[in-house]
């Protein structure tokens, strides 16, 4: 007997709202149960949210909730299964408990209290004993979309090698130049030989783009080419695109698994611990900060300004600052600041220059955009994907600082502005990101081979998990400035918080608190200034 089905099945207690802590009055959280049935060892309730997303929810005693991912067998009956070829792979056959148990799930919340619900869980990633594709029948494709990020080539390499070496899949295509490559360009044949050295290069060998997402043309192309596994590597925009591709595939009843691999140098994707390339970006940023520090320290009243990426989330700036110790002030989009007057930036710079003789400022590109908009009257412009095009805050703040010290102060300063943003994201991934990319790619391959679809893969509290698309696209991950990590930064730089008590607003949200990724101590206070961008 197939041991997957021999595993005990978690008890399905009752239909309940997805997250009992959420407000039921919110239209976003209204669910309609329209069916259920035993699948893959679980008996999920399938609920449709008012925004159209179908959610597979399994509940258990003690407040356990599994937010499961879709499976091909949800909408295609009587699919045959096959033994996992890994069972005969000499490398893996000796590994004890190599296969993931069907009821293994990963808790999103690991800090819990005696009487609190156990919260949301995700399906654990990894190989299953039975797969839903015969290796010879698989035609897989890989696409990369959005901005560059260190590690893209490593993920591509490891998907190709994982499919070839673990599952014996020999047909893998690269889609040329992002989503529009599905219907506008030729494909690139990917083999272990083609991808052998690519992890040593930055960028993506299959190209990327913004914009150009046309769901029906993309799914037509998938159908016409006979592709049955689609690996989509990209950020929040890309995962949104992947979600609608998956919905269309399901609507057409196609046996096509859609797997998302989250890519964002900004680390702005929620739920997962961190995104690949982030570690490399923080490391690379050190070089720029170091240069700014050397320049500033070598002249009288030297000021070094470094702009780092981070459109809406200041994680790179925050971590690069914490790592460096040479930074006097870090400005991020989540933390409003002001220039003039008591407690303002200029006053602080002046104080530091008098004390130390030099000053280093790190600023995330999305910081202070409201101040820029006030002083530079500009039209709201967007890139091809609909992302807001930002003004260059680094140039702007450098000019403001120069103007201030030349006109209103008797101090002569010497400012150097460094913009390493594209240099940082174009480098190859470092060792730890390479390992991380390998795990992401292999988890995605295991999930698709096992018939899961409509999922993004990523680590949740250190365990790789399959997360439904709607979870990673419903909001952005931001630095929570009332959490301990930002306090650590403030106490390391000694910069002003730019907040007065009146800015700290009561946040009695009943919704699940945002996971401030990377910070293991994410138990944010009830009283919080939170800035979240909702997309639903
Ligand atoms: N809401 C959406 N629906 C469908 N496709 C989208 C959506 N938002 C973005 N995309 C597509 O995803 C791709 C990448 O998006 P973009 O925002 O540029 O980068 P990232 O995925 O890194 O955030 C683009 O091709 C864009 O057209
Ligand atoms: O100039 P481009 O290519 O549009 O990229 C700029 C943007 O790309 C990023 O590095 C990453 O953004 P995405 O994750 O949306 O690709 C942002 O930090 C930055 O604003
Ligand atoms: Mg994005």
Model description:
- It is a single chain.
- The chain has 536 residues and is α/β, with parallel strands linked by helices.
- The protein has two domains: 57-272 and 429-473, 3-Layer(aba) Sandwich (Rossmann fold); 278-378 and 390-427 and 481-508, Rossmann fold, CATH 3.40.50.
- Helix content is 31%, strand content 17%.
- The chain contains 17 helices and 19 strands.
- Strands 1, 2, 3, 4, 6, 7, 9, 10, 11, 12, 13, 18 and 19 form a 13-stranded mixed beta sheet that branches. Strands 15-16-14-17 form a four-stranded parallel beta sheet, sandwiched between helices. Strands 5-8 form a two-stranded antiparallel sheet.
- Helix 4 (152-167) packs across helix 15, helix 7 packs across helix 8 (236-252) and helix 9 (278-297) crosses helix 10.
- Residues 1-41, 506-515 and 520-536 have low confidence and may be disordered.
- The structure holds adenosine-5'-diphosphate (ADP), 1,6-di-O-phosphono-beta-D-fructofuranose (FBP) and magnesium ion.
- Adenosine-5'-diphosphate (ADP) binds at residues 145-147, 178-179, 209-213, 234-238, 240-241, 244, 264, 385, 387.
């Amino acid at each position: 007997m197939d041991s997957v089905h021999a595993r005990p099945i978690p008890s399905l207690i009752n239909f309940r709202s997805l997250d009992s802590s959420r407000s039921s009055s919110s239209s976003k959280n209204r669910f309609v149960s329209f069916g259920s049935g035993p699948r893959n060892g679980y008996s999920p309730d399938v609920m449709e949210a008012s925004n159209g997303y179908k959610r597979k929810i399994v509940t258990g005693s003690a407040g356990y909730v599994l937010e499961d991912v879709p499976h091909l067998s949800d909408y295609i009956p009587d699919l045959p299964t096959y033994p996992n070829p890994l069972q005969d792979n000499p490398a893996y056959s000796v590994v004890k408990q190599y296969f993931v148990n069907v009821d293994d799930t990963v808790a999103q919340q690991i800090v819990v209290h005696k009487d609190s619900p156990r919260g949301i869980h995700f399906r654990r990633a990894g190989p299953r004993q039975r797969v839903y594709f015969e290796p010879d029948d698989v035609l897989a494709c890989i696409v990369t979309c959005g901005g560059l990020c260190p590690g893209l080539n490593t993920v591509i390499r490891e998907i190709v090698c994982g499919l070839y070496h673990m599952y014996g899949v020999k047909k893998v295509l690269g889609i040329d130049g992002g989503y529009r490559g599905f219907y506008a360009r030729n494909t690139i044949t990917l083999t272990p030989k083609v991808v052998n050295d690519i992890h040593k290069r930055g960028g993506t060998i299959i190209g990327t783009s913004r914009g150009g997402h046309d769901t029906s043309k993309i799914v037509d192309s998938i159908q016409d080419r006979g592709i049955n596994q689609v690996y989509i590597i990209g950020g929040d925009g890309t995962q949104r695109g992947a979600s609608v591709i998956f919905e269309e595939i399901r609507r057409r009843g196609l046996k096509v698994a859609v797997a998302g691999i989250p890519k964002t140098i900004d680390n702005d994707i929620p739920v997962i611990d961190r995104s690949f390339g982030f570690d490399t970006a923080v490391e690379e940023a050190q070089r720029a900060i170091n240069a700014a520090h050397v320049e500033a320290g070598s002249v009288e009243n030297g000021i070094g300004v470094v702009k780092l990426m981070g459109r809406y989330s200041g994680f790179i700036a925050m971590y690069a600052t914490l790592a460096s110790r040479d930074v006097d002030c870090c400005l991020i989009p989540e933390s409003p600041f002001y220039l003039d007057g008591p407690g303002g930036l200029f006053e602080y710079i002046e104080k530091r220059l008098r004390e130390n003789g030099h000053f280093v400022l790190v600023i995330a590109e999305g910081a202070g955009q409201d101040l820029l908009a006030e002083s530079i009257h500009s039209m709201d412009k967007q890139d091809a994907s609909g992302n807001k095009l930002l003004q260059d805050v680094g140039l702007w703040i450098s000019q403001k600082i120069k103007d201030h010290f030349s006109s209103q102060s008797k101090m002569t300063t010497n400012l150097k502005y460094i913009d390493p943003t594209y240099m940082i994201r174009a480098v190859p991934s470092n060792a730890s990101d390479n390992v991380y990319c390998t795990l992401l790619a292999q988890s995605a391959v295991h999930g698709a081979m096992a018939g899961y679809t409509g999922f993004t893969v990523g680590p949740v509290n250190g365990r790789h998990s399959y997360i439904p698309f709607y979870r990673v696209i419903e909001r952005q991950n931001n630095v929570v400035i009332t959490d301990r990590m930002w306090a650590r930064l403030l106490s390391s730089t000694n910069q002003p918080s730019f907040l007065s008590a009146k800015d700290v607003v009561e946040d009695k949200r009943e919704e699940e608190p945002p996971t401030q990724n990377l910070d293991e101590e994410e138990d944010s206070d009830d009283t919080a200034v939170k800035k979240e961008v909702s997309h639903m």
